[in-house]
Amino acid sequence: MSHLKEKTPLIEKLKNKYRLTISNEASFDEVLSIRLSRLNVFTVTGLFSIVLIALVTLFIAFTPLREYIPGYPDGEMRKNIENNAVLVDSLSHELEKRDRFFQGIRNVVSGNDFDNIAQDAADSIVDPRYKNLKFTKSTTDSIFREEHEADEKYNLSLGSASKRRGLSNTHFFPPIKGMVSSHFDTKLEHYGTDVVGGMNDRISSVLDGTVIFAEWTLNTGYVIQIQHANDLLSVYKHNSELLKKAGEHVKAGEAIALLGNSGELTTGPHLHFELWRNGHPLNPEDYIKF
Fold it and tell me: M23ase beta-sheet core domain: from which residue to which, for each copy (predicted)?
């Protein structure tokens, strides 16, 4: 009766000792002999692999070799990315300021509630941490104010300067010479003067100023708006072509557009001219002879 060979457990097989011998081929002399087991070989090989992987990872992570990995940005690219991020942030800030500026101009032209608009704009700009700050006049400031007011009490130049700031002595250059077809009338919500002229006639700026708006609009066609001193704003509508861009400085009498018939709210070549001050419309014919 034959006996079945008893199976050896796996852990025992791993612990079995083996001898690795290196001999001289010519003399068969033993040069090196090492006792090993399968468990030792697996352990040493695993530790060596882990250490090798860790060293390679650290070597790549903290040396310029990482830049040779596909998809990893090099130093110049990272610098450009940071610069672009800064530029985009600055551009967003400037666009936000520009939008607030143009919204203010639209509010001036349309006559919106400026108190609420100004308060909303202030709330959006001011840091919330500083909204509850309160300022009081110090004794030193009050004394300085009284001394300054006493010194300027008999200063005649202040009165003349105040008079010069009025509109009575302001000389307006006619934007165009022609026949007035429609007069200023707040009851009809017609806040300007319509002047008929020839197609592509020259339109001039009434005063020195800066162009703050020069764009196409659906109802009034090509429109240009100019901000002047003394809180004055002049508006020129229904032009056939604009000769100036927003941000440009113009002189009184300088050509800014060509008369036209653009926009839906027009029946023929003419200039619709408006004059505003501090958000209130003025009758252009009180100051300009067309």
Answer: 190-284
Q: What are phi and psi of 8, to 5 degrees?
A: -90, 130
The alpha carbon dihedral of 99, 105, 106, 107 has a sign of positive
Q: What is the CATH number of domain 179-286?
A: 2.70.70.10
Output b/e per residue, 1-24; b: 16+ Cβ within 10 A.
Answer: eeeeeeeeeeeeeeeeeeeeeeee
For the entire predicted model, the pTM comes to 0.46
Q: Which amino acid is at 83?
A: N
Spell out the residues 6+ positions from residue 241 whose beta carbon is closer than 8 angstroms to its own.
200, 222, 257, 258, 260
Q: Supply the pLDDT for residue 2.
A: 47
**Residue 225, SS3?**
strand
List the chain residues with pLDDT less than 50.
1-2, 4, 113-115, 117-118, 154-164
Tokens of 248: 């440009």
Q: The tokens of 138 are what?
A: 């110090």
pLDDT confidence of residue 249: 94
Phi (first) and psi of residue 230, to 5 degrees: 60, 30
206's tokens? 């009434």
Are 239 and 199 in contact by the 8 Å Cβ rule? The answer is no
